[in-house]
Write a structure and sequence with these properties.
This protein is α+β, with helices and mostly antiparallel strands. The chain is built from 2 helices and 4 strands. It has one domain: YaeB-like fold (2-Layer Sandwich), CATH 3.30.2310. It starts with a strand and ends in a 13-residue tail after the last strand.
Length: 95
Protein backbone atom coordinates (compact mmCIF):
# COMPACT_ATOMS: atom_id res chain seq x y z
CA UNK A 1 0.00 0.00 0.00
CA UNK A 2 1.30 3.48 -0.80
CA UNK A 3 0.82 6.74 1.04
CA UNK A 4 -2.11 8.99 0.22
CA UNK A 5 -2.58 12.63 1.21
CA UNK A 6 -5.65 14.54 2.27
CA UNK A 7 -5.98 17.47 -0.14
CA UNK A 8 -5.29 19.94 2.66
CA UNK A 9 -2.12 18.06 3.65
CA UNK A 10 -0.93 18.17 0.03
CA UNK A 11 -1.59 21.93 0.00
CA UNK A 12 0.46 22.32 3.21
CA UNK A 13 3.33 20.43 1.62
CA UNK A 14 3.19 22.52 -1.55
CA UNK A 15 3.11 25.77 0.47
CA UNK A 16 6.08 24.72 2.61
CA UNK A 17 8.14 23.75 -0.44
CA UNK A 18 7.36 27.11 -2.06
CA UNK A 19 8.18 29.02 1.14
CA UNK A 20 11.55 27.33 1.59
CA UNK A 21 12.27 27.74 -2.11
CA UNK A 22 11.74 31.49 -1.75
CA UNK A 23 14.15 31.69 1.22
CA UNK A 24 17.25 30.41 -0.58
CA UNK A 25 18.05 28.80 -3.92
CA UNK A 26 17.60 25.05 -3.69
CA UNK A 27 16.23 25.05 -0.13
CA UNK A 28 12.77 23.98 -1.32
CA UNK A 29 14.39 20.96 -2.96
CA UNK A 30 16.29 20.13 0.23
CA UNK A 31 13.03 20.33 2.19
CA UNK A 32 11.27 18.10 -0.35
CA UNK A 33 14.12 15.54 -0.15
CA UNK A 34 13.70 15.44 3.64
CA UNK A 35 9.95 14.89 3.15
CA UNK A 36 10.61 12.03 0.70
CA UNK A 37 12.96 10.34 3.17
CA UNK A 38 10.37 10.62 5.96
CA UNK A 39 7.62 9.26 3.71
CA UNK A 40 9.83 6.29 2.85
CA UNK A 41 10.38 5.59 6.55
CA UNK A 42 6.62 5.77 7.15
CA UNK A 43 5.87 3.39 4.27
CA UNK A 44 8.45 0.85 5.47
CA UNK A 45 7.61 1.04 9.18
CA UNK A 46 4.29 2.84 9.74
CA UNK A 47 3.93 1.85 13.40
CA UNK A 48 7.42 2.96 14.48
CA UNK A 49 6.50 6.41 15.80
CA UNK A 50 4.51 6.83 19.01
CA UNK A 51 0.79 7.58 18.78
CA UNK A 52 -0.33 11.20 19.01
CA UNK A 53 -3.97 10.18 19.25
CA UNK A 54 -5.77 6.87 19.16
CA UNK A 55 -5.51 6.73 15.34
CA UNK A 56 -2.63 9.05 14.35
CA UNK A 57 1.15 9.15 14.52
CA UNK A 58 3.80 11.75 13.72
CA UNK A 59 7.12 11.30 11.95
CA UNK A 60 9.44 14.27 12.41
CA UNK A 61 11.66 15.51 9.62
CA UNK A 62 15.40 15.32 10.24
CA UNK A 63 16.42 18.82 9.10
CA UNK A 64 13.30 20.97 9.32
CA UNK A 65 10.78 21.77 12.08
CA UNK A 66 7.99 19.76 10.46
CA UNK A 67 6.19 16.55 11.21
CA UNK A 68 4.10 14.32 9.00
CA UNK A 69 0.87 13.43 10.77
CA UNK A 70 -0.54 10.19 9.39
CA UNK A 71 -2.87 7.27 9.97
CA UNK A 72 -0.66 4.16 9.98
CA UNK A 73 -3.14 1.49 8.89
CA UNK A 74 -4.45 3.39 5.87
CA UNK A 75 -1.13 5.18 5.23
CA UNK A 76 -3.05 8.45 4.98
CA UNK A 77 -1.21 11.75 5.54
CA UNK A 78 -3.45 14.08 7.54
CA UNK A 79 -1.07 17.05 7.83
CA UNK A 80 2.39 18.31 6.99
CA UNK A 81 2.66 20.35 10.17
CA UNK A 82 5.13 23.02 11.22
CA UNK A 83 5.96 21.95 14.76
CA UNK A 84 6.42 25.47 16.15
CA UNK A 85 2.97 26.71 15.15
CA UNK A 86 -0.55 26.04 16.45
CA UNK A 87 -0.11 22.55 17.87
CA UNK A 88 -2.85 20.06 17.09
CA UNK A 89 -4.59 22.37 14.57
CA UNK A 90 -5.11 19.29 12.38
CA UNK A 91 -6.91 17.17 15.00
CA UNK A 92 -10.41 17.79 13.57
CA UNK A 93 -9.50 16.55 10.12
CA UNK A 94 -11.46 13.51 9.04
CA UNK A 95 -9.55 10.27 8.57
Amino acid sequence: MSLRFLAIAQAELDEAIAWYGAQAPGLGQVFFADIIKALGRIERHPHTWPPLTLDLRRCRLMRFPYGIIYEPDELLVIAVAHLHRAPLYWRDRKV
